[in-house]
Amino acid sequence: MRKLANKLFFIIFFAGYLPLAIPNLPAGESANIGVKNIVPRLQNDTLIVSAEFVNIFSRRIIGTIQSGLPSIIQIEIKLLDSRGRQMARKFISTSVEYDIWGEKYYIVRNGKRKSFADFAAVEEVCTRLRDEKLFFRTDPRDENNYRVEIRVGIIPISSRQAEKVTDWIMDPNQTEETVASDNRTTGFELNINRLISFFVGKKKGSKYVSKWTSSRPFRWKDLVP
Fold first, then answer.
1. How far is it, in rounded angstroms, from Cα 6 to Cα 105?
2. What contacts 146, CB < 8 A, 6 or more positions away?
3. Rounded CA separation 161/12 (Å)
4. What are the pLDDT digits (tens) for 177-224?
5. Whole-model pTM?
6. Sign of dihedral through CA atoms 23, 24, 30, 33?
7. Distance between CA atoms of residues 40 and 138, nearest Å
8. Is the pLDDT of residue 137 over 50?
9. CB burial of residue 36 (10 Å; 0-12, 13-18, 19+)
10. Which residues 6+ apart lie within 8 Å of 23 measured at CB?
11. Do 210 and 127 contact (CB within 8 A), yes or no?
């Protein structure tokens, strides 16, 4: 019990000094989070998507994680037709944590927890989206054009928010339908903009989330298996 109390004291104390400990990015260094290299392809008549993310981990975010407080990476993926109608949408939440006593990093997604010895390995995993299933039962006879849009954000969680909120966001059974109903009582929603506005405020929120980035238009028959 004493060990747990000491750990909580250290986390809260360090977090209070975090803005002083982590310097701002130097002039000329981009702090904008972005999405690039969106690659849709087919796998057994299922649309899968890969992409890369840049500037997710600012030094301030890294310092927050290394203080023992989690950060949540939130990815939104949409499939749109040529008229801009949404055909599919997916949310992906990943928690990045650091055990200051065990000196290990952890990535938690869909209820699965993996450990990493250093932050470089964490960054390698979290800055790439690999073959994410998005849309089933594609029809190669369909001549319509489609495109994939993606945006990504990172949400630093304070010590007061960490336990309850992280568990809620990371619930692998959460769906858009349950969010719509839960939002009336909890005040939370999986939409990145609303999450970031809640945790870091509207004025600062823009630097924690990317703009929507679109793939090139494609037809099912043109995609490489």
1. 20
2. 79, 80, 81, 82, 87, 217, 218, 219, 220
3. 12
4. 333 333 333 333 345 665 655 555 555 556 789 999 999 999 999 997
5. 0.72
6. positive
7. 13
8. yes
9. exposed
10. 59
11. no
